[in-house]
Amino acid sequence: xxxxxxxxxxxxxxxxxxxxxxxxxxxxxxxxxxxxxxxxxxxxxxxxxxxxxxxxxxxxxxxxxxxxxxxxxxxxxxxxxxxxxxxxxxxxxxxxxxxxxxxxxxxxxxxxxxxxxxxxxxxxxxxxxxxxxxxxxxxxxxxxxxxxxxxxxxxxxxxxxxxxxxxxxxxxxxxxxxxxxxxxxxxxxxxxxxxxxxxxxxxxxxxxxxxxxxxxxxxxxxxxxxxxxxxxxxxxxxxxxxxxxxxx
Length: 248
Description:
CATH topology: Deoxyribonuclease I, Chain A
Strand order of the largest sheet: 9-10-8-7-6-5-13
Largest sheet: 7 strands, mixed
CATH superfamily: Endonuclease/exonuclease/phosphatase
Radius of gyration: 17 Å
Helix content: 10-25%
Structural class: alpha+beta
Number of helices: 4
CATH architecture: 4-Layer Sandwich
Shape: globular
C-alpha cells in the first residue's frame, strides 16, 4: 500500500455565527476556523436564513490570514456566501467544476459537490446539511446518491451536519453506504455538553480517515451550538489531474 499524503479535513455548523452565549460573533467563528487548521473545510449555516441571506464571514480575511478560499457558488442572491448556507473552503487547491444540488424535503436544503485537485490528487468534495425530519433525510440521501451516479467516479469526501445519530437499517443515511466505505462522526451537539454525532465525515474507496474527533476548545464550545468535527484524510494511490481549472 502506497500512502501518498494526508490532509486535514473538517466540517463545522457555525450556526450563523451565533454562539451558546447568544451573541453573533463572526470574528469568533473565524478564530475557531483558525484553530482547526483544515486543508478542506465544509461549513453549514454560513449565511443568514431569511431576507437577503447575507454571508456572515469575512472571506477576504480568511484568504489573507488563513490561506482558505471559498469554492465558488452560483447563487442568485449576491449577498449569500454559500448554497443553502453550505460553504466549502480549501487551501492550495484547483477547482475543476462545481455542482449545486437542491435537496428534497420539507425545509430548503442543498449540497455543494466540487471536483478539486489538491496536492496533485483528484478528489470530489461534498458539503451538505440534511434536514431535521427522518423522511426528509432519507430522500436527501437518495437524491445525493442519484447525482453522484451521473458523475465520473473519483475519490469522494462527504462532510456536513447530517442531523442523524442512528446507524444500521434505521439510519436515514443508509443509501450512502453503497458508495461510502467509511462513515465517521463524533459527539458534536450540543457544543457545551456534546451527546450526539450529528456531524459526519465520509470517504469512498482508496481513501481512509484517521483521528476523527470533535474539536473541543474553550472557544469552540462557545462559538456555535455544534462543535467542529475534524480528521485526517489519507489517500492510497494517486491520479494526477491534467485538466485546467480555477486555482484557489
